[in-house]
Amino acid sequence: MDLIKASILPGFMELLPDDQIVFNTIKNKIIKTFEDHAFKAIETPVIEKKEILLAKGGGETSKQVYSIDHESRDMALRFDLTVPLARYVAQHYHELDFPFRRYHVSKVYRGERNQKGRYKEFYQCDIDIIGDKELNIHNDAEIPYIMYKAFEAINVEGLVININNRKLLTGYFNYLGIDNRVDILRLIDKKDKMDIDKFKSLLEEELADSNKYERLLEFITIDGSNEEILDKLKGLKVDNEEFVIGLDELDTVYTYMKLFGMDDESIKINLYITRGLDYYTGMVYESFIKGHENLGSVCSGGRYDDLASNYTKQKLPGVGMSIGLTRLYFILSQAGLIDIKARPYCELLIIPMEGALEYSMGLLNQLRSSGIRSQIYFEKNKMGKIFSYADKENIPYVAIIGEEEMKENKISLKNMKTGHQEAISRDEIKTIREKI
Amino acid sequence: MDLIKASILPGFMELLPDDQIVFNTIKNKIIKTFEDHAFKAIETPVIEKKEILLAKGGGETSKQVYSIDHESRDMALRFDLTVPLARYVAQHYHELDFPFRRYHVSKVYRGERNQKGRYKEFYQCDIDIIGDKELNIHNDAEIPYIMYKAFEAINVEGLVININNRKLLTGYFNYLGIDNRVDILRLIDKKDKMDIDKFKSLLEEELADSNKYERLLEFITIDGSNEEILDKLKGLKVDNEEFVIGLDELDTVYTYMKLFGMDDESIKINLYITRGLDYYTGMVYESFIKGHENLGSVCSGGRYDDLASNYTKQKLPGVGMSIGLTRLYFILSQAGLIDIKARPYCELLIIPMEGALEYSMGLLNQLRSSGIRSQIYFEKNKMGKIFSYADKENIPYVAIIGEEEMKENKISLKNMKTGHQEAISRDEIKTIREKI
Fold first, then answer.
1. How far is B385 from chain A (nearest CA, A)?
2. Residues near B294 by Cβ (< 8 Å), separated by ≥ 6?
3. Residue A19 · residue A345 · CB < 8 Å
4. Does the distance separating the beta carbons of B14 and A88 come in below 8 Å?
5. What is the number of other CB atoms lying within 10 angstroms of the CB of residue B400?
6. Of A122, A144, B84, B310, which has the highest C-beta tally within 10 A?
7. For testing the chain B interface, which of A35, A47, A135, A359 should be mutated: the one with the most B CBs within 10 Å?
């Protein structure tokens, strides 16, 4: 029989066990953060009706969707967790209580072109709070705070959550009488990707009015400390209701992010953040790692007015953020920023000598009852090979069981890192837990 | 805009949050059992090359495979976790150490026809131990023992793991000179699904030799205690090497399952268990819940000689078992056998009165630092509605914060189940953890 080359499709991530343990540890710490902050898990099918997934209509997304070819039903793989959330909340509206605090950590699928660090299958870690008709602005401070705690839990230092409010910009557009907002929003969103002079000339061209240009430029280049930015914005005395609401929301969110426990250095009011053409209507967030801003935003989101308008007449406003975990793992490992001590899959390897297998079984059970991840090396092999196995598998302790150990009811415990060996009586086995 | 009805495809499971918490608790306890017994997680892409997935060739499986229709690549969704394991081990052979103890808990996809309790997307919980060229028989005792521990961890009582060894049956076939083994294996596998007289007459017809029929029937109806069955099998004095090896393996596995810590009532040597036409070559396992045998096997598997022969010339024998978790959850809940105390997603709801929000923020942070899953009710609502929210969300404690609480630096803690209310000083907050 001809062999088939064992390989996976390009653009998919697959890890070796040592890296997988680190990845899973990161994922579990993020989940634990969400759960510790009173969010509930939901899980939705990976395959959904295409009409549900593409309710919002075409664009880039529909080209990237993986369609399923089976019994001529219109099915596809979800490309994010927000559309399934909208469908879930609309479908189960009468069985849910609001505010609905849900997290969802799962894989999504996008048939993008191959590109380094972009994956076609990737984990998203989403948290959202959905209100029924209304949702208080304080939730808009809690969401970024929880993401800040998630990054703290996975030992990523220097996270700065950039915040802005869309109403500020649209209010200011109205105030200045600017009509072609979409083009200008798009331009502002791309500001950091081009030379500042290039940006200025494009903005001037787009606005075709030197007064408007000057005032908009002055506005979006407002900088300083967070307090200074807020003061300058208040000082503009813009007579537009939307602007005033946006400024008040931004101020409240900033204040409450600190009350939740974030320090000022982890928050940056950034008036360029617009989240492009997304469906956000109020607060918007992007997050960067200090000194690694070039890696792009590692956690983004915002406030939306009406989550599920394609599926229900209920008005369901919400606020949420998402971590693209597969990409985050890739960029953190590329940048050498992974600082996770994962628990070894096996902490103690028992090597039974001839005739010591039954005795070793009792020892194995005792070790496992004491919470020590243990296994017996059952195979027949040379001692050198067995030690090399323990070494390569990063098993920290090895216990050889021979006649002497059985007679004295002891185990000879060898620390694989230091080479130190000591005899421990069976009564003291629980103390091994502290050594690991 | 026309609304699209929010719904999922038939044959997919989606749970409401309360049930999801129970499901996740079960899944996490199974994973913890695997990890406590020194198994490592792997994760493989859900989408793989079709030639990899269907390497073993057609049959029922290929009809059930979900193909992906995207940029004319031959891709499909995995239908089990064993084929991806084989591909993974073949692909990464030089980077892995053997014996390779891996677990994999993830979703697989089968486009089966709609049927109650059968899902098109379902979780499998697999453990396998893969050897390089050889794998000791003691592993065949550890795998069912760990599954036994997994069921213990999720409080399912009365699990009986039925064990057999294929070599016994094929050895006995050889010994009797029976040629049409496939048909007879298939028949024996279906024995429990038909009337015993019907089975006997079909078996007699198939064998067309009354001596062979009598002796095979005598063999497969051997019953009694496990020890008695082993004694009877030894007493047959079958002069066939395969039979002798099979009997010795069965005896060893039975003995070691007990040495690992299983009681005799949880093991049943069952000579009908053949696992039909699967690729197993030695030990085979099926598991039933006492008194609920009609639910079918809840955990099955066996020993295979050569895992990855489609992808590599390396001989990789292994032994493994699998729980179909989605189906298990369904049948346990239908049979009222779920006995899981899931931790509430939120343990304490803070209700701030007018002017108490900032004070409540400090309290929230203190509660969360003490490991109590807490949230503030930020929305403006009537007290009755808020209490009804806490009730429906199964939040066990509510703390109302008003002027008095702020003045005395206390919280009024109300037990939502008993209605009991008590004042607790801020210094004693850690004690709440014990109440929950």
1. 11
2. none
3. no
4. yes
5. 22
6. A144
7. A47
Neighbours of B399 (CB within 10 A): 24
Q: Crossing angle, helix A17-36 and helix A139-153, to 10 degrees?
A: 150
pLDDT band at A82 (very low <50, low <70, confident <90, very high): very high
Question: For residue A378, what are the CA distances in angstroms to B128, B338, B390?
Answer: 15, 36, 53
CA A234 to chain centre: 34
Minimum-distance CB partner of A38 among B46, B259, B374? B374
Q: In terms of DSSP bridges, do strands B318-324 and B348-352 run parallel, antiparallel, or are they unpaired?
A: unpaired
Residue of A nearest to B312 (CA): A3
Strands (E), A131-234: 159-165
> Could you say which of B38, B51, B389 has the minimum Cβ distance to residue A346?
B38
Contacts of B308 in chain A (CB under 8 A): 6
Residues of chain B with pLDDT below 70 are: 1, 58, 277
Of residues A194 and B163, more confidently modeled: B163
Q: Which of B25, B40, B135, B138 would best serve as a mutation to test chain A binding (most A beta carbons within 10 A)?
A: B40
DSSP string of A75-130?
A: EEE-S-SHHHHHHHHHHTGGG--SSEEEEEEEEEE--PPPBTTB-SEEEEEEEEEE
Q: With bands split at pLDDT 50, 70 and 90, how would you rate the model's confidence at A1?
A: low
β pairing state of A318-324 and A121-130: antiparallel
Residue B137 has which token pair? Answer: 């028989």
Tokens of A385: 């090979």
Indicate the SS3 state at residue B411: strand
β-partners of residue B423 are B412
Partner-chain contact A41 B20, CB within 8 Å: yes
Helix H or strand E encompassing B327: helix B325-334
User: Among residues A82, A287, A307, which one has the least CA distance to residue A164?
Assistant: A287
Tell me whether 0.90 is exceeded by the ipTM: yes
In this complex, which of B40, B52, B68 lies closest to A69 when CB atoms are compared?
A: B68
CB pair distance less than 8 Å for A111 and B6: no
Q: Which residues contact A347 (CB under 8 A, 6 or more apart)?
A: A372, A373, A374, A395, A396, A397, A436, B38
| Token reading at A271 | 């008036």
Q: Minimum mean pLDDT among A101-110, A266-275, B348-357: which range?
A: A266-275
The CA-based angle A338-A340-A342, given to 5 degrees, is 140
